Structures are given as C-alpha cells and as structure tokens.
Amino acid sequence: QVQLAESGGGLVQPGGCLRLSCAASGSISSLYSMGWFRQASGKEREMVARITSGGSKYYADSVKGRFTISRESAKNTVTLQMNSLRPEDTAVYYCKLTPVYGAPTWGQGTQVTVSS
User: Fold this and answer.
1) What angle (nearest 5°) sits at the alpha carbon of residue 92, between those of residues 95 and 74?
2) Burial of 47 by CB count in 10 Å (0-12 exposed, 13-18 middle, 19+ buried)?
3) pLDDT tens for residues 3-17?
4) Rounded to whole angstroms, how far apart are CA atoms 71 and 42?
C-alpha cells in the first residue's frame, strides 16, 4: 500500500509563489508517474502537471511557463514550483501516484488560495 503526504499549500497574493511537495511511502514499484491535479470549488478535478518515471513532463496549458514539476526518485518525492500565481489557480491541489500496474493513489489534498 502506498501513502502520499502533501505539504506546502497556503495563502499567497497574486503574482506570488508557492512550492508544493509530495512524499510517497510504502510499497512503491520502480516504475510510476507522479503528478499534481487540482479541483476548484464547483469544478471538476483537472491535471496540472505530471512527470513520468523516465522524466517526461506534461503541463496543463493554463500553467505552462509558470509551474515546474520536478522529481527526486531516490526519495520518492515530487515537487511543484508555482510562480506568478493567479486568483484562478485557487483550488485544492492533489498529488497522484500512478504505477504501471495497479490502481493509482491520491493524496489528501492541500489548499492553495491566491488572493489579495
């Protein structure tokens, strides 16, 4: 069983920065992708960024050039550096680990609020 622990959410002014971290523990296979999703109030959950076991990175169009995902495989951690934050980035952010085989695991979510 895999557990994910997220940290780094909070309140920030527009144009500010936040860094989210997600640490995975438990029975983790060597091949998996990790990513960040978000869900704003009244909206569906959407992919923000993900990184594969091979290091390929994918971003939602709305965050390209502002957010950067990175991964430290030795520590089973993934981080999301969020710059130039906008009010529309306000959401609960969830970490997700997707193994090659088996069901994905979701974190508990961390609130990000961008407001002046």
Assistant:
1) 20
2) middle
3) 999 999 999 999 999
4) 30
